[in-house]
Input
Amino acid sequence: MASRRPSSNLEMTSTIPNRRGSERRGSDRRGSGFSSRRPSIDPSRLIPMDKASHVGGTDDFNVVFIGAGNIMFGSDEGPWNHSFRFEHKLGLRLKVVALIDPAIERARAVLQKKCDSFVVSAYQGTRVFKTLDDFVKNMSSKDRPRAVIVGSPPMFRGTIQPGRDVEMQILKYFPGVAMFIEKPIATGPKAEIEQAFTIAKRISDSKAVCSVGYMLRYLKAVQMMKRIIEENDLTVMATIARYACAYEAIAKLDWWDKSKSAGPIVEQGTHFCDLSRYFGGEVDISSVTAHSLEWDENAGHLSKMSVDESQIAPENRIPRVTAATWKYDSGAVGSFTHVATLQGHNYSCELEVHADGYSLKLVNPYVQPMLYVRKPGDDHEQMITFPDDDPFFSEISNLIDIIEDIEEDPEAAQILSTYEDACKTYELTWAIREASERSRDAKLARSKAAAEAVKEST
Ligand SMILES: NC(=O)c1ccc[n+]([C@@H]2O[C@H](COP(=O)([O-])OP(=O)(O)OC[C@H]3O[C@@H](n4cnc5c(N)ncnc54)[C@H](O)[C@@H]3O)[C@@H](O)[C@H]2O)c1
Output
């Protein structure tokens, strides 16, 4: 039988609960530790929602959602929808005590839909607030959350500055309470990265469970790649990542504006930069080089944009292509190319991981994940498919199991992306953006010098 840590309200106060056996066995499992080991999960344990049973117990599991947008409540853009996964994992235990969003009407509208459906029990007591402060001021002890799920835009978090410091607010108001933070951890100016690392340290010191939404790590295919590497004691020699997004489907003006979203590498390519790091290890940030194809270059024209780019200042328009390479601390080499070139809806993304005798190729992880494996002794690739895999469910399911401290099998649940790890991915994406801007500036300077030389000679 699985045993759970009792969840009395007392435990949600400022004291950190006593450590149990499973925590001692591996604090990195909880997502708050600074461990060099990159955790993995047995792929056979990653099961889709319809095959998973609700977590046990009968007591209420209070949750606060921050952000009432697409990631939290779903949209046509993709399969994400955290509320849906929480409902399935927690069943009747789920009580969303508050929904925080300055867009009150949007929050009320999504709640109304929930209350009109069979999951009403989770939402009938949900109160809407514009800020976390407002919730705390109006909160009774029975409303204390066991987890705070942050799906607000990254420009409002990841720093220690008032108004953009939701993690620090959570740590202050609810010490020890679990957090889930969406990727990327921030999109502010590069100079603020240190503030994100400060938050990582505070989370780690607090011992709070914290998971960041790099859900591709929870793909069955990704965990199978990990398993092959671990079982064969392989050393990764190269990671080769390619991310082709379907730009036609991206109708959010902010996404096309570097001053708002920090650009396609920081905001979107981050998933594949993160996966590259998951396999390649720490990156030597000083080694990062990159080139870009910009919107105003001959080859940079896009014919089917769904937004009016003229509303964005020219200097804030995003590149159409960014290609980067870097060295890992191990000596291995990483490369990543992001292109905003596809029309239609589906993205086309691939990640190759190479080691002596082995090639592991992850194809189409967003739509229909496939893994191509080539091993010593056979020149042919074996193709493996993963029908019904749901990494969004797996990341939530693992988070809840860790919070509940299910001890049936302490190896089963893992937080695969800690806040500190996510900070390092954020740092890599900024390094790529900056490297591409440096090479663009250098090219412009060369063109200008050449033009001036021609002018002088005439
Ligand atoms: N892992 C994935 O595949 C995936 C998919 C989609 C979105 N995301 C991430 O989720 C985050 C949110 O994206 P989205 O698509 O839901 O955006 P969205 O614009 O649909 O929703 C964001 C919501 O947050 C609200 N908001 C703004 N400021 C806030 C604040 N200070 N506090 C609370 N709420 C605030 C907005 O009013 C809006 O309702 C982003 O970081 C995005 O990258 C991840």
The longest strand covers residues 236-246. Residues 1-27 have pLDDT under 50 and may be disordered.
